[in-house]
Design brief:
It is built from 4 helices and no strands. By secondary structure, it is mainly α.
Length: about 80
């Protein structure tokens, strides 16, 4: 189904011609699909946060030490 077909179904003119019982089913299906899409998008977001918490902070510590003057960058 294309975007134009969905727009046509959701337009007030088309909704006026659709019986109430069918319109209710269409609305429920659209609401359910939107809810499922957002719920499934929580999984990658949660995994991203989990991976960020377990990332090593070696680079951050060395940058912080270099900025505070404790380590000379580029010299060993």
């Amino acid at each position: 189904m294309s975007i134009h077909a969905l727009h046509a179904i959701l337009s007030p003119e088309a909704r006026a011609h659709i019986p109430a019982s069918i319109l209710e089913k269409i609305t429920a299906a659209l609401a359910s699909s939107i809810a499922h899409t957002f719920l499934w998008s929580l999984i990658p977001a949660a995994l991203t946060l989990l991976f960020v918490f377990f990332m090593p902070n070696d680079r951050f510590v060395s940058m912080h030490a270099a900025q505070s003057g404790k380590v000379q960058v580029g010299k060993e």
